[in-house]
Specification:
By secondary structure, this protein is α/β, with parallel strands linked by helices. It contains 12 helices and 12 strands.
Length: 370
């Protein structure tokens, strides 16, 4: 029998990984068996799983590693009674006719999952019509099934923020609203600065005719990216023509249609900014079909969310990009929420990440005479 020393996590004998082998194929591993394998008391294992601060980080990690090795699953009902916590992060997913599935949101969720699984947290995903999201968020909090919420798809004067500030449930916003005080916890990238830098680079290369293929016009990140573009062009005495701006869902088909339309204008753009590499995929297809050479006849910069299946360096002509990882943002937001729930550490409540501007072959000097 393993030695035990009460519930002091600093004095527990370490478990041996080989002990896990006989449990890997077992259907059920209970708390008593897990504690014996680790050489820890049941109380310490339970406290480690429930985030009690008196359990040190090394012991908590040993317990979580053993949980993954053995497939142990705590009794959620008993855990909730003991701690008052559900062990879940809630999110509201907008869905309705005309709203297309979003690969960017999937990558962000993968980042959330990376961090949540380290602490045995679950997701509660509540679908909602966009016009009913405030009520859906309120119901989700009232259900008691979540310990915290994160908000995405920020809009101008987003009403969800004011509602959540009246509640006691922790939350973090991915993005920032526009037109309301930023006195709430958020993580955002500097969308204005990213597209200012991108447009300025193209203007410095001599381009005078610009186009912007953007996300939906009601989303805050799209508004800020257009603002950054307009600001950079204004500094060079240039304007962004409205007929050279498209707001849409960020799919390759929308990118293709927008670029196809721009190229048919009497004065087509020689410089294009895309809010996603997915949009850029369609835009490049239209450029190729028109017989134009990317980086020579027309230059393009896209925002790269670091999507694993669409790397800008793997395009036939590698894309110049502004870059910030959506997966890393998901990991960070989950870490902040879980740290708040379990009082593990004190982390910044407001973060604005700068993007990287990576120059590749898709940008070059403006064509002569244009």
């Amino acid at each position: 029998m393993p030695k035990r020393f009460g519930t002091d996590p600093g004095n527990e004998e370490k478990g041996h990984p080989k002990r896990f082998e006989c449990f890997k194929k077992a259907k059920h591993v209970n708390l008593k068996q897990l504690s014996q394998l680790l050489g820890l008391s049941q109380t310490t294992v339970s406290r480690a799983l429930n985030g009690y601060p008196e359990v040190n980080a090394e012991t908590r990690q040993r317990v979580l590693d053993a949980v993954r090795e053995t497939g142990y699953r705590p009794n959620r009902a008993a855990q909730r009674l003991a701690t008052g916590r559900a062990g879940s992060i809630g999110l509201v997913m907008p869905t309705a006719d005309g709203i297309e599935s979003d690969v960017h949101f999937g990558e962000f969720l993968a980042g959330l999952g990376d961090e949540a699984v380290k602490h045995d947290f679950h997701f509660v995903i509540n679908p909602s019509h966009p016009e009913e999201e405030v009520a859906t968020c309120r119901r989700l909090v009232a259900s008691g099934n979540v310990d915290a919420l994160f908000l995405a798809y920020m809009r101008e004067k987003d009403p969800r923020i004011a509602m959540l500030k009246t509640l006691k449930t922790p939350f973090v916003v991915h993005g920032r609203s526009i037109g309301v005080p930023t006195d709430y916890p958020y993580l955002d990238i500097d969308n204005t600065g990213a597209f200012y830098d991108a447009a300025r680079l193209l203007a410095q290369l001599g381009h005078r005719h610009f186009a912007l293929i953007n996300g939906p016009d009601y989303l805050a990140f799209s508004i800020r990216r257009k603002k950054g573009t307009v600001r950079a062009l204004a500094e060079h005495g240039l304007t962004l023509r409205e007929e050279c701006v498209q707001h849409s869902q960020m799919t390759d088909e929308h990118g293709f249609r927008a670029m196809e339309r721009f190229l048919q204008l009497e004065t087509p753009p020689t410089a294009v900014l895309c809010s996603s590499t997915v949009l850029a995929l369609g835009a490049v297809r239209a450029i190729n079909q028109a017989g134009l050479k990317l980086g020579t006849d027309i230059s393009l910069i896209a925002h790269d969310d670091v999507l694993p299946m669409l790397k800008p360096e793997n395009f036939m002509v590698p894309l110049t990009t502004t870059r910030s990882s959506l997966r890393a943002a998901g990991q960070r937001i989950a870490r902040r929420l879980i740290a708040d729930i379990l009082t593990l550490e004190t982390l910044p409540q407001q973060e604005l990440w700068k993007t990287d501007l990576i120059v590749r072959a898709s940008t070059g000097p403006a064509p002569a005479g244009k």
